[in-house]
């Protein structure tokens, strides 16, 4: 389809050597005008409530700034495309004479060092923070942030099995997260089971739900499947809200037992963790334990996924993602393949869910809305669907980034004191998903090459291969 | 009996709103085969546009006639929402033609998240109540138990506006060259392009028409409920999509029919079973229809092409 046209060299002369300023200017002006049209009235007038009445506050200054930004960006974009077109149109002296080697991507060079580096940082993170911050209590915030990020890394890796490897767009992943969380919450509060018994149970229950919900949707095509999983996710959330007898409704389940160190509670008294190991009691012990717990769970997810990719079922997932019809013609049982992807993805969601419950000590249906699914999906999409390290980096950037931005005080002096980057987080998520699909559909750091290779590794990046439609 | 008639009226009103949104889904699906996930949020955005212009017209410009104000609000909301529809298509969907199959849907989810949070950032997270616009009711008949079956003026307005706009829209699709181009693109995009139809422009216009009808729905929603918040795009959007699928996606009369059915089911379910589970009912219908009758009531069964 997109074969390079033969007339490239002939075009060289027609590509203007100078940047057509007038046309770019006109186009940028057009873009700014469209932006002006879009911002009327949604950005121009803010509705504020006083008593029962709404009144409007005009904000023309803000709109002027936004339009100016759009104008500038459009101009820069024009300059960029023009310079690129010029570069491409000017043949390099080596171009024709040297054979083009399919070089491994820069990422593949880096990844050899990057992965041990990331794992090392993750393992030593609490110690590093302790050393930098100079005390256990001071490092509380950072360890907490680390736990949050790792939870999303794990969820991202779990969803990656379904979306990235098997190519099934699951918009209701948060349902399995919810199943895991409520399994632990209910089993521990009703039957008094410990976390270590509930963790596998939560995983099994979530996997079971994965099969139940996966089974009816197997016949569906990509986007219908996505919508049905969305519907299932919402149904589970609404049932959790409305089945008050079981789940205590929207109020949620509180006072869920906390995690213990393999049976030793993190309490200050006799027989507690600090007492047993002869340490001074500190609430941070539990936090650090939770950190290592989620790190272990996340690494387990990663390890299992990496191994599964090399097994027949993992190869079948990848084949299914590339072309379902070809897959079926080759005798792969697509039903089982899809179900295992759903079940295993759901199982890791369940693990993460029960971790969430034990960390928070409280679960309510509001933690499991569609937006949460969308955030996890955004992490997987921006990590380059299928790439494990990409998902981890995306989770760090998308979840940790806004938190870190919030602490940069100079931003508040630029944007005003009420500036909270978390407000704009989802705005950026949404825009990021679109930008990703438009520019790098394979993700920023995609290394989604097939796991199985004949004889030697041919460095064909996933982004060069056109995906089959099936 | 009285409750039944009352719920029938309410259901038809709600159903017309869903039907108007569903047309946007069904047209886009028909022409480029994608689920425009962001359509519900375009609808929500249009309700905000309508709200702000209603305030401008009534409080600043001093238009005292509500009907006149509504008329202007409707026109303005349609124009501005169309611009949004056009821009979204241009930025988020057009570059994805020929990309892999799930790309447009993921992009649409991104647009949906973007739009709802854009409105949240720009307008705040609270519900925005409007001053009551039309309050009079016509009592149709009085029941023995003192239960009046009432048809409110706003329900009349909603049904009349829906009917009029659907007629205009029907005329455009069936009788004008634009509609012919659109139907041609729907059947075979490549062939249509060979025959000199500007496919990109036709697709853009499809989004524009869909957004304009969503703006009508948004204005009517505001009139009916008198309150809107930034989260209001999601659930009505999913219900309208359900309507589109139920009616047979790609079929325009199907979308309206599906909308009416979904509206009726929702109101009767709330009246006779449980109001808490009304959204569960809607989502269940969506799942059941997609799994068991994906071609809907009036749709053509889809043939899988290799």
Automatic annotation (TrEMBL), chain A:
The keyword S-adenosyl-L-methionine does not apply. CDD domains: TM_PBP1_LivM_like. Keywords: Cell membrane, Membrane, Transmembrane, Transmembrane helix. Residues 24-125 form the High-affinity branched-chain amino acid transport system permease LivHM N-terminal domain. It is a multi-pass membrane protein. The chain crosses the membrane at residues 28-45, 57-77, 113-133, 145-163, 168-187, 193-217, 224-244, 288-305, 339-362, 374-399. It holds the Pfam family DUF3382. It comes from the Bacteria. It is found in: Cell membrane. The keyword Cytoplasm does not apply. InterPro entries: ABC_transp_permease, LivHM_N, LivM-like. Its main location: membrane. PANTHER family: HIGH-AFFINITY BRANCHED-CHAIN AMINO ACID TRANSPORT SYSTEM PERMEASE, HIGH-AFFINITY BRANCHED-CHAIN AMINO ACID TRANSPORT SYSTEM PERMEASE PROTEIN LIVM. This is High-affinity branched-chain amino acid ABC transporter permease LivM. The lineage of its organism: Bacteria, Pseudomonadati, Pseudomonadota, Alphaproteobacteria, Hyphomicrobiales.
From TrEMBL, chain B:
Its main location: membrane. Keywords: Amino-acid transport, Cell inner membrane, Cell membrane, Membrane, Transmembrane, Transmembrane helix, Transport. It comes from the Bacteria. InterPro entries: ABC_transp_permease, BCAA_transport_permease. CDD domains: TM_PBP1_LivH_like (cd06582). Signal peptide: none annotated. It is a multi-pass membrane protein. The chain crosses the membrane at residues 12-35, 42-63, 69-88, 100-119, 156-173, 203-224, 244-268, 280-299. Pfam families: BPD_transp_2. The keyword Transmembrane applies. It is found in: Cell membrane. PANTHER family: BRANCHED-CHAIN AMINO ACID TRANSPORT SYSTEM PERMEASE PROTEIN LIVH, HIGH-AFFINITY BRANCHED-CHAIN AMINO ACID TRANSPORT SYSTEM PERMEASE PROTEIN LIVH. Belongs to the binding-protein-dependent transport system permease family. LivHM subfamily. This is Branched-chain amino acid ABC transporter permease LivH. It comes from Microvirga splendida. The lineage of its organism: Bacteria, Pseudomonadati, Pseudomonadota, Alphaproteobacteria, Hyphomicrobiales.
């Amino acid at each position: 389809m997109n074969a390079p046209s033969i007339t490239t060299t002939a075009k060289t002369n027609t590509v203007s050597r100078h940047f057509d300023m007038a046309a770019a200017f006109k186009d940028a002006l057009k873009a700014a005008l469209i932006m002006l049209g879009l911002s009327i009235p949604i950005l121009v007038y803010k509705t504020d409530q006083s008593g029962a009445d709404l009144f409007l506050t005009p904000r023309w200054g803000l709109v002027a700034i936004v339009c100016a930004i759009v104008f500038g960006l459009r101009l820069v974009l024009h300059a960029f495309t023009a310079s690129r077109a010029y570069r491409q149109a000017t043949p390099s002296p080596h171009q024709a004479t040297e054979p083009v080697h399919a070089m491994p991507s820069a990422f593949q060079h880096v990844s050899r060092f990057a992965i041990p580096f990331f794992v090392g940082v993750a393992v030593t993170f609490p110690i590093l923070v302790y050393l930098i911050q100079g005390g256990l209590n001071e490092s509380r915030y950072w360890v907490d942030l680390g736990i949050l990020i790792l939870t999303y890394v794990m969820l991202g890796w779990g969803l990656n099995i379904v979306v990235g490897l098997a190519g099934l767009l699951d918009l209701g992943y948060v349902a399995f997260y919810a199943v895991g969380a409520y399994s632990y919450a209910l089993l521990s509060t009703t039957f008094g089971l410990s976390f270590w018994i509930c963790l596998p149970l939560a995983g099994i229950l979530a996997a079971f739900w994965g099969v139940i919900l996966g089974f009816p949707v197997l016949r569906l095509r990509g986007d219908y499947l996505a919508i049905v999983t969305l519907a299932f996710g919402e149904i589970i959330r609404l049932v959790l809200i409305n089945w008050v007898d079981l789940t205590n409704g929207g109020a949620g389940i509180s006072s869920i037992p906390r995690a213990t160190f393999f049976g030793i509670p993190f309490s200050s008294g006799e027989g507690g963790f600090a007492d047993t190991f002869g340490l001074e009691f500190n609430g941070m012990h539990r936090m650090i334990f939770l950190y290592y717990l989620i790190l272990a769970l996340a690494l387990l997810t990663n390890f299992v996924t990496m191994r599964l990719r090399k097994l027949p079922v993992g190869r079948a997932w990848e084949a299914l993602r590339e072309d379902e019809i070809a897959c079926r013609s080759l005798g792969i049982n697509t039903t089982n393949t899809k179900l295992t992807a759903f079940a295993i993805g759901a199982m890791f969601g369940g693990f993460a869910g029960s971790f969430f419950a034990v960390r928070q000590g409280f679960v309510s249906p509001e933690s499991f809305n569609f937006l949460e699914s969308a955030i996890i999906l955004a992490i997987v999409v921006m990590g380059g669907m299928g790439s494990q390290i990409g998902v981890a980096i995306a989770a760090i950037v998308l979840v940790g980034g806004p938190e870190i931005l919030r602490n940069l005080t100079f931003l508040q002096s630029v944007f005003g004191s009420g500036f909270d980057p978390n407000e704009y987080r989802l705005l950026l998520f949404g825009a990021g998903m679109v930008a990703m699909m438009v520019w790098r559909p394979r993700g920023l750091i995609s290394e989604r090459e097939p796991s199985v290779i004949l004889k030697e590794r041919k460095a064909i990046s996933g982004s060069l291969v056109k995906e089959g439609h099936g | 009996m009285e409750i039944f008639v009352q719920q029938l009226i309410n259901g038809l009103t709600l159903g017309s709103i869903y039907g108007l949104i569903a047309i946007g889904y069904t047209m886009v699906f028909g022409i480029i085969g994608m689920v425009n996930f962001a359509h519900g949020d375009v609808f929500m955005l249009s309700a905000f546009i309508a709200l702000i212009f209603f305030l401008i017209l009534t409080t600043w410009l001093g238009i005292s006639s509500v009907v006149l104000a509504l008329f202007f609000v409707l026109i303005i909301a349609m124009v501005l929402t169309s611009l949004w529809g056009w821009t979204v298509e241009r930025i988020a969907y057009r570059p994805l033609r020929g990309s892999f199959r799930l790309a447009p849907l993921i992009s649409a989810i991104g647009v949906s998240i973007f739009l709802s949070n854009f409105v949240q950032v720009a307008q705040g997270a609270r519900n925005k109540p409007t001053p009551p616009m039309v309050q009079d009711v016509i009592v149709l008949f009085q029941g023995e138990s003192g239960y009046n079956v009432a048809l409110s003026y706003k329900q009349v307005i909603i049904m009349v506006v829906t009917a009029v706009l659907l007629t205009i829209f029907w005329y455009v699709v069936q009788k004008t060259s634009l509609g012919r181009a659109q139907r041609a693109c729907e059947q075979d995009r490549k062939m249509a392009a060979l025959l000199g139809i500007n496919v990109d422009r036709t697709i853009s216009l499809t989004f524009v028409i869909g957004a304009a009808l969503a703006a009508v729905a948004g204005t009517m929603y505001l009139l009916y409920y008198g309150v809107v918040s930034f989260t209001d795009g999601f659930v009505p959007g999913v219900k309208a999509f359900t309507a589109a699928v139920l009616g047979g996606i790609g079929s325009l009369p199907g979308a309206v029919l599906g909308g009416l059915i979904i509206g009726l089911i929702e109101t009767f379910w709330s009246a006779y079973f449980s109001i808490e589970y009304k959204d569960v009912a809607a989502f269940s219908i969506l799942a059941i229809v997609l799994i068991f009758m994906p071609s809907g009531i009036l749709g053509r069964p889809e043939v899988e092409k290799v």
